[in-house]
């Protein structure tokens, strides 16, 4: 199976974190400095990668740890 077609086992908990902080995806995108579309792709689990700089900014803005945002779910 090619790398592009492989499903990953990482779950993204951005919806829950945003809800807990009463923040919209648009507000987070503006504060992090990325596009709404890019965060939406991450939120929906369709991202193939995330830059550490982006992950760092998300964690800074949401006051969380990477493990609060991402978890591993074996197939």
Q: How would you describe this structure to a colleague?
A:
The protein is mostly helical. The chain has a single domain, classed as 434 Repressor (Amino-terminal Domain). It is 51% helix and 8% strand. The chain contains five helices and two strands. A two-stranded antiparallel ribbon has the order 1-2. The radius of gyration is 12 Å and the shape is globular.
CATH hierarchy: architecture: Orthogonal Bundle
Number of beta-strand segments: 2
Using the coordinates shown, work out and report the CATH topology.
434 Repressor (Amino-terminal Domain)
Write the CATH homologous superfamily: lambda repressor-like DNA-binding domains
Count up the domains: 1
Distance between the termini: 16 Å
Helix/strand-derived category reads mainly alpha
Largest sheet: 2 strands, antiparallel
CATH class: Mainly Alpha
The radius of gyration is 12 Å
Q: Spans of 5+ residues with little confidence (pLDDT < 50)?
A: none
Strand order of the largest sheet: 1-2
| Structure annotation, total helices | 5
Helix content: 40-55%
Mean pLDDT: 92
Which term fits the overall shape?
A: globular
- Helix-strand sequence: EHHHHHE
Instruction: State which percent range the strand residues make up.
Output: 5-15%
SSE diagram, text form:
Layout: E1 10-12, H1 14-20, H2 25-32, H3 36-43, H4 52-62, H5 66-69, E2 70-72
Antiparallel strand pairs: 1-2
Question: Nutshell version of this structure?
Answer:
The protein is mostly helical and 75 residues long.
